[in-house]
Every structure is written in structure tokens, then in C-alpha cells.
């Protein structure tokens, strides 16, 4: 980790400030030592928060390969990069010993800059206190977003009974590449760190979504709800996701809503494509995606019309009704085995920050967990609201008479229908693995052969947590690895 920081930060800062020079006064350049660019004004820190380097990450392909909604097919599986094969087989060691993992490097570069803004912006020149607090609040929100991923990758699923002794991820709150080797605090301390950052940020964030690439109050509330959801604290998650949805509903900034596939997939709609049957629906660019409230994006190499190696399993494909328009993101062309599998066609560039459909699914689950299953303000109401945007109204109806447990499981299935092949299943697999309602669930990957032979790879409890790459362990003597 230490070397990852050193190798990337100097170039990173130079690139950011080169992108922002057009907005800087000549006096700023005159006082900076030759060859160095240093943030001094409030606007400099504001420009850091505008950097496109905060937008592009390499996580979707990684997470997607871990999800149990997909299967692999021989001989196509064998041509995938070795890391994809290791992830799919749930192997103990994913990276070669000499590899700087790109997934961590991308997060760590962002973390360095968020820390820089957090620690320095309040002492910057120019700008009001309110402006400085707002910029700092955005960076605090961004840092929490980074740690959501660190915990999803490198810590055990949150269990309140063991979190006081389970190992967390190193807490990095300074922009210092010369910091002494890192240690691992408890998982409780890491979750407290995220909660404290988001709680501190919320009062200073705008209630208006002025840009999909900048943090707003609804985003911080959404992330706080997601942290509580991972902790199994559903009442706390419900309070915050309720607030987030209410703020978005009242938003007067950039458009923020759920696409209605019944309309948007028709000619002239935002998702329409003349070649939808072979390449999938069109998908708006990050600034134009009205479902997004935090414009992060990844290129998911597991998705395309030519993808034969990872496909949707027949069991998950069967969860879609025949008129569910989400099926248009898949086809079965040239897939001869196993019967019923589907290829994901689009979008190759995925919105992976925070999206509005996920908020309604989170609220539906929290309401179901509170045994608020039907009627006004219920899980069924949220599910119906989303499903009516995804299929004809006659097909969107929610089954009646479900018990609380049945409704919770229906919500989880709806999350699969909505979020399959986006990497989000891994977040759910981790938390469900310790949920008593899902005890006995086995998460398995299957590799199919044209002969009918199937190889199965069962996800062991230890591998809900990635091992820390050897390169990072070597750079930080004493850093404890996962089992």
C-alpha cells in the first residue's frame, strides 16, 4: 500500500492540477516553485473534487466474477485472465506476488486526495467558511465510499457479536506517503469511521443535486443507509434511506428519477437502440444517467454480445417474467448449454456509484425487516413502484399473502433481477451469509462443459474476505493477512 501511494501520487497530483490550470490566476503559477503544483486556494481544492480521476474505477469486473448469479462455460472460461478464473473458483490467493492490484490502487489514489482535501481545505485561501465546509463534506463522503469497498473486499461480513475483535482495514486519514507501516484496527472501528465521516458530512452537503459527480446530502444519507444495511441495523438504515429518497424527490437540480423502461426502451427513448436484440439497450453516459446520484463508472469486461465465458445461470434467468423488460439486457443467441442461461449484453460501462433503484430496494428490504409488508409505506409499495418502471403494470403486481420472511426473500430476489451482473450480488452474498433467515444457503459457482460435466466451486466462509495481496504485505511488515 505504501509503495502504491508513492508510485501514483506525484503523477496524480500533477495531472489534477494540469487539468485545473485554466481556472487559476497567473499569480498562483508565479508563487509555485518550478516543477511543483500546490493547492492553496479554496478553488484549488474545489477543482480537485471535480477531477475525472474520481469517476473511473476497476471494481465491477472484480465483483461480478464473485457473484453466484453467473456461471462459466468451457472452453471459453479458459481464455479469461487468470485473476478472473481465480475469483470464480474462490481461490485463496488471487494475485501473483509481484502484482500491484489495480482495484486497490484506484481506491488508494482517490483516498489520498480525499484526505488531502479533508485535512487542508479549511486553511485554504479565499472562499467562505460555508464553501470550505461543503468541499470538506464532499471529501468525507468520498472517503466513506472508499471504505465501503475496502470492507467489502478485505474484511469479514459485519457480525455484531465478533466485530469488536474481527480485523478491519487500515484507517488512513492522512495524505502522507511516508507514513510508517499500517496496522489493522477492529472492524467496529472501521464501521465507526465510515459512520462518523458521513454523519459529519451531512449537515454541510447540499440538498440539491447539482452534479452527478459531486456528493450531495441525499448521497451521504444513501451511503449511511448502505453501511447500516451491511451491519444488519435495518431501523437505522430505514431512517437514512427514507431521508435520501425524500430529498431526491424534492430535488430541484439535475434530473434524478428511475427510468420507465415501458417508455424509454421505445423508439426515441433514452434507452432505445435499433440493435437492442443483439447489443442490448442503449445506456446514457454518466453525466446524463438520471438514475445516478453519484457518477462512478466501471468498464465491465464480462458483458458484451460476444461474451461466452460468464453467463447468467438458468436458475437466476428463470426469476424474470416473460414481460420483464430487464430481459432486454440479455439474450440467448448461440448459447447451446446449459439450457436456460443468458448472456448479458449491456451496459459495458456501468454506473457503480449510487443509483436510485438501489435506494428503493434498500427501503423495501428495511420495511420488510420491520414486518411492514403491505399497504401504504410498505415493502410491497416500494417494490411495485420500481417494478412498474421495469415491466407492464399488469405484470408488476406483488404476490399477496406473503409472510415477513417470504417478503424479505422476495426483495432479495428483486435485487437479483435488478442488479444481476453489476457486481452488487457480492455485497448481498456477504451479509446474507451470516443472516439467520438465509442459514443453510450455499453460494456455488459452476463451470459447465458441452459434454454435460459440471465442476462446482463452493464459497467457503473464509473467502467472503479477500486475502491482502503479497505486494502490500511486503511493503507493510507486521500487517496481518486474512486466513
Structural class: alpha+beta
- Average pLDDT, all residues: 91
Reading the helices and strands in chain order gives HHHEHEHHHHHHHHEEEHEEEEHHHHHEEH
Tally of DSSP helical segments: 19
Shape: globular
> How are strands sequenced across the largest beta sheet?
5-2-10-11
Question: How many E strands?
Answer: 11
Please identify the oligomeric state.
single chain
Termini gap: 19 Å
Q: What is the C-alpha radius of gyration, as a whole number of Å?
A: 23 Å
Share in helix: 40-55%
Roughly what fraction of the amino acids lie in strands? Answer: 5-15%
In summary, what is this structure?
By secondary structure, the chain is an alpha+beta fold. The chain has helices at residues 2-20, 26-31, 42-49, 60-66, 82-88, 102-120, 129-154, 187-201, 217-231, 234-250, 261-264, 276-279, 314-317, 356-369, 379-387, 393-396, 404-419, 424-432, 470-475; strands spanning 56-57, 70-73, 292-294, 297-299, 310-312, 330-331, 343-344, 349-351, 354-355, 444-448, 454-458. It is built from 19 helices and eleven strands.
